[in-house]
Write a structure and sequence with these properties.
Length: 427
């Protein structure tokens, strides 16, 4: 039933250029028909007619010409039906008018002009066939009950048949031309869509690269400036220590100097990792997350930490180094911000039709709800545990990776109870 409806709707589908041309022609017909009716009624010969029919027809033509301005987005899908039904109805009215005026030659010529014009407007052979069959049957019926002579009878039928033949020839050429235009329009549209998508992708890539440059500028102007100033000050102090032969103070200043260098290296490495995470998953690349986690478990045994995997983790379409970055940062944070004797970490996942939802749960110090969004911002550090040094890049890096692989990250946490990070990735 749905296929039948689609086919019926498809018959009335027309191209954009056809909508414009049909609308313009109907707009011309409407006022012209109204003016013609006015002069015939007031100054023309006495003719028999259906009272008000021409005026109603003129109004319908005018309304049909305005429809494309009302239904701009959907008109292409049904405008063919509007034109077909309007011309079919008007043609049958003309046949009645022919009969009332006993097939006057003046009306016959006008009728033929409308028939020929109608088939030019129709977009499919089915419309033309329905039109000719119904019009021919109606015309034949009116001729049979009229008082026309045999010669007139045969002349009208033969001339109408000639119009039918010429109409089919014309339609055949028009259909081929229409199909040619349709194919070319489709190719142009596909090309335009592809170019638009490429431009959008490039614009998005440029926007992301600009954001990375801004982030790097922030690091250079802010986060690196402090350790650089400290390094300069410590180097001056170390020079004074050498001059004064104060070895104890010199060793302490050199130790602090080394700490500043390590801190700068850590910041630069974090920013470099963050800036390079522009690559999205390759559809042919699958990562065994279960095997990945087993490696992390082996590496973190010495940290007095139990990492439990609730069930076998799936294969995921993502860059392997990116997936490592995600789990590495979440697991290291769970260990780093833990105040319990034994750090407990649980890793699990669920799956629906579209996404895997991974979870990394810990029994650490927890995060207040006021900071659930802030912690994902670049260089945002929460001083919630003394002695923990952080660059404020890890979680923003994780969010960037997940977002660029069409996923989301969020958390649930209770202070002093623990935190659970959730992130999704496409199936």
């Amino acid at each position: 039933m749905n296929n039948f409806k689609k086919k019926i709707q498809g018959l009335g589908s027309v191209e954009g250029f056809e909508v414009k041309s049909h609308s313009f022609l109907l707009f011309l017909i409407g006022p012209t028909l109204f003016i013609y009716s006015y002069f015939i009624n007031n100054y023309g010969d006495e003719t028999l007619r259906i009272e008000g029919a021409r005026e109603v027809s003129a109004l319908l033509f005018l309304i049909a010409s305005i429809l494309p301005f009302i239904f701009k987005k959907t008109i292409n899908s049904f405008y063919g039906w509007i034109v077909f039904l309007l011309m079919l109805g008007f043609t049958h009215y003309l046949i009645i008018n022919l009969h009332l005026n006993n097939f006057s030659i003046r009306f016959i010529l006008g009728f033929y002009a409308v028939v020929f014009g109608s088939i030019i407007l129709f977009s499919t052979r089915i419309f033309v066939n329905i039109y000719f069959v119904t019009v021919y049957a109606h015309l034949l019926q009116k001729l049979m009950i009229s008082e026309v002579d045999d010669i007139t009878y045969k002349t009208i039928l033969s001339s109408f048949s000639l119009i039918f033949v010429f109409g089919m020839i014309l339609l055949n050429n028009a259909t081929r031309y229409r199909e040619f235009l349709y194919r070319n329009n489709k190719l142009l549209e596909k090309g335009k869509i592809k170019r638009t998508l490429d431009l959008k992708k490039r614009a998005k890539d440029l926007e992301e690269k600009n954001e990375d440059l801004e982030d790097f500028a922030h690091v250079v102007s802010h986060d690196l400036r402090t350790p650089l100033r400290n390094t300069l000050a410590l180097s001056n102090w170390a020079r004074d220590d050498v001059r004064n032969n104060n070895m104890t103070s010199l060793n302490e200043h050199l130790r602090l100097l080394e700490m500043q260098v390590v801190k700068m290296d850590s910041i630069l490495e974090g920013v470099l990792n963050y800036s390079l995470q522009n690559k999205v998953s390759n559809s042919n690349e699958e990562v065994d997350t279960d095997l990945l986690i087993k490696d992390f478990i082996l590496l973190n045994k010495k940290n007095n930490c139990n990492i439990t995997v609730k069930k076998r983790l799936p294969f995921v379409k993502i860059n392997k180094s990116q997936m490592s970055q995600v789990f590495q940062n979440l697991i290291h944070n769970a260990i780093k911000y833990n105040d319990k004797d034994v750090c407990e970490i649980e890793i699990d996942f669920t799956q629906d039709n579209k996404f895997y939802t991974f979870s990394v749960k810990d029994n650490g110090i927890g995060i207040d709800s006021n900071y659930h969004e802030k912690i994902f911002e670049l260089f945002q550090k929460l001083e919630i545990k003394k002695g923990v040094d952080s660059t404020g890049i890890g979680l923003s890096l994780v969010k960037k990776i997940i977002s660029r692989n069409k996923g989301k990250i969020y958390l649930e946490s209770k202070v002093n109870k623990g935190t659970t990070f959730y992130f999704t990735l496409p199936v």
